[in-house]
Amino acid sequence: MIEYNDDKRIFTIHTKNSTYQMQADGFGYLLHLYYGRRTLGVTDWALSYVERGFSVNPYDAGNDRTYSLDVLPQEFPSQGTGDFRSTMLNVHDESGTYGCELRYVGYEILTGKYSLSGLPAVYANDNDEAGTLIITLSNERLGLTAKLLYGVLPEKDIITRSAIITNDGKNPFTLTKLLTSCIDFTHGDFDLITFHGRHAMERNFERTHLTHGLFTIGSRRGMSSHQYNPFMILCEHNATETSGNCWGMQFVYSGGFRAEAELEQYGQTRLMMGLAEEKFSYTLKPGESITAPEVIMTFSSQGLEKLTHNFHDCLRKNICRGKFRDIQRPIVLNSWEALYFDFCGEKIIDMAKCAKSLGVDMFVLDDGWFVGRNDDNHALGDWTEDTEKLGGTLGELVGKINAMGLSFGLWVEPEMISENSRLYREHPEWAMSIPGENPVRGRGQLVLDLSRHDVREYVYRSIAKILDGANVEYLKWDYNRSINEVYSHSSQCQGKIIYDYMLGLYEVLERINTNYPDVLIEGCAGGGGRFDAGMLYYTPQIWTSDNTDALDRMSIHYGTSFGYPVSAMAAHVSVCPNHQTGRITPLNTRYVVSMSGAFGYELDPVKLTDDEKNEIRRQIQSYKNDREIITDGLYYRLSHEDFFAWEHVSRDGS
Ligand code: GLA
Questions:
Q1: pLDDT band at 18 (very low <50, low <70, confident <90, very high)
Q2: Binding site membership of 602 for ligand 1 (Cβ less than 6 Å)
Q3: What is the number of other CB atoms lying within 10 angstroms of the CB of residue 491?
Q4: What residue's CA is closest to ligand 1, atom 7?
Q5: Residues recognised as catalytic
Q6: What is the number of other CB atoms lying within 10 angstroms of the CB of residue 650?
């Protein structure tokens, strides 16, 4: 699976259908040779040496003007080496001097898949399933060591990358750009496929023919975002669903990101993905490290469909974890579109009774259940149930619902704080805000500073108290604004906060997963604003979009399907006219669209006619009959032009 050719210092990673190759050359530069269809040969034909004007030459090359890092394909291009393309690593020292040339030091080949401390990453189910290659590079002047990590799941055609940058020197230095993955192509005519959107209309498919220049997408919002998903595909210009070469990169990270495709002067293409540069300025003191979040890569020579299957299989069984990875998820009735903030305990009981009679498994109480929360301007941070509104304690309400044979789920938004809350009055310094400036509000709320230990402790304890006090078996973990003020009142290095926030979030989620393994968490960020492989590591399903209109959902599901499995996409049937679009669609259409997902309803069942109730009973039965094929089978996109059509096929093809 991983081979090293000592003569030529060539590293080869084989998967079932692909090969990845690189070489530490005579000067110690780590050059990329090949990523494509499986080959047994040596691919150093990829390197060509020609004198090219204004492409500078490393000092070590002496009078050889044919050697230039400006045109050679590289594994981890860094700024200041004479490569004037966009680079992965930009570093400056204390004097502000930029530049960090990296030379090869050594390698290790390990069985099993590496893991990343504090960050989500692909895992292997047993050691035979995976291998790890670590290549070490260093820069002597700065004392910077870069450990490049490669993981391989050969049967799944998956290769992952990450990197750990350490200060092994005597003085601090600062990273202003850190990407994770790069593939340099020496030739090819490519299209780039990305997924853009906005709130309530996420992950729209867009295919662009690459022309000269730098094409970038990303998020500066401290979240992976509704606007661009951290996933992209580079494919041959004529590739289709079932033919042609294509390469995918998917970021296992839920914060800001940057993805780039650059077509340069000699028709070569560089494809890269990693952390956003915006508000990132990460100083490492001697002895300190930073880890570049993981990127999952796959290659398909059989078009987009095979590439999709590779990602689906990897995310389902090597990213999603816990018992809900393998068991069927509950069919829920969520209260949001039925009640918004306007409800009482009695109303909930009536809805739950009716839901039970239709065949629903779980009642999910959305926003509005805690003291002071009768609109979205108040009380975030104060996670105490409103006993008056609920007609008793949360534990009592859940007890009544459980007694009907229904399980219970609850909405929370733990990363946020309302200025109008007890928490803010006690701890204004826990909100991200810049001293001397008024913070920007988003949905009337501020973001809690999860880079702080005391804030993480408070958030964890608030959630633990809810889970200990009532039989809550599901949490909808929401996140309803972008981060603007990147400032922590407890830090000396503000350039670290945007990254440390995300480590903080992952720490809290990991603690909840570990201590409450029977609780299913559904991710959400105003719908699908944090629909990424990082969240899926902790929350095996995500609310796909706040838009529940069946027609709009077809294109949202279509775009989402390229990188993410159906089991990850929470989808609910809601009422008509639809609350977001006003459109009227048949109940059956709404069902057919939502059944391609982690299924549920988001309406008041008490208000349904008898005919509608009967239809819903049939829908739930039909979903239960087919759901294994839907959530674990193979997914095929059949059409998206004049009409949408997709197909679920059982693994054995029957
Ligand atoms: C976000 C979610 C919705 C709902 C509301 C509650 O917008 O995406 O589904 O939970 O918050 O305030």
A1: very high
A2: no
A3: 14
A4: 526
A5: 532, 612
A6: 12
